[in-house]
Amino acid sequence: MEMHLARCTVWSEMLDKAILGEWSLFDLTIRIKASFLT
Fold first, then answer.
1. Mapped to the 3 state alphabet, what secondary structure does the chain carry?
2. What angle do CA 15, 16, 19 make, to 5 degrees?
3. How far apart are CA 7 and CA 1, in angstroms?
4. pLDDT (tens digit, 0 to 9) for every residue of the chain, 38 residues total?
5. Quick one: CA dihedral 8, 21, 23, 37, positive or negative?
6. What pTM was estimated for this model as a whole?
7. What is the C-alpha separation between 14 and 31, in angstroms, rounded?
8. Of 14, 21, 24, 30, whose CB neighbour count within 10 A is largest?
9. What is the sign, positive or negative, of the torsion defined by CA atoms of 12, 18, 19, 20?
C-alpha cells in the first residue's frame, strides 16, 4: 500500500512538472513507459 502511495506521489510530481512545462510531453511518455517496465 505504501509503495502504491509513493508511486502516486511520484506520478503527481511528474504531472506537475509536465504542466509547468519543465518536461516535454515526449519526455513524460518515456518516463511513464520506463516506470511501467521497472
1. CHHHHHHHHHHHHHHHHHHHCCCCHHHHHHHHHHHHHC
2. 85
3. 10
4. 577 777 778 888 878 877 777 667 778 788 888 888 86
5. positive
6. 0.39
7. 9
8. 14
9. positive
